[in-house]
What we know:
This protein is α+β, with helices and mostly antiparallel strands. The protein has 3 helices and 7 strands.
Amino acid sequence: xxxxxxxxxxxxxxxxxxxxxxxxxxxxxxxxxxxxxxxxxxxxxxxxxxxxxxxxxxxxxxxxxxxxxxxxxxxxxxxxxxxxxxxxxxxxxxxxxxxxxxxxxxxx
Length: 108
């Protein structure tokens, strides 16, 4: 009986655990890199300062977790209505985690 309860517990934990999915990052801009922001607040702040025109990169740098090349492979941990929390899984920014606009996340 104890073994059955342990098995049921493991099964439930695996069903309830958040599922990550594989994808790639591609922005709709002509830039060779995609900006990954520290969090959704940093992305919102960037969007506010970008409304006045192209922001200076020195103003944007403190908001970024990293910059990664277009097409970088990522793991998506969560998706919201407008953003996704991702981890870069290859290349120079491997291991970087942060928030990107949902439109930048594309299936492989």
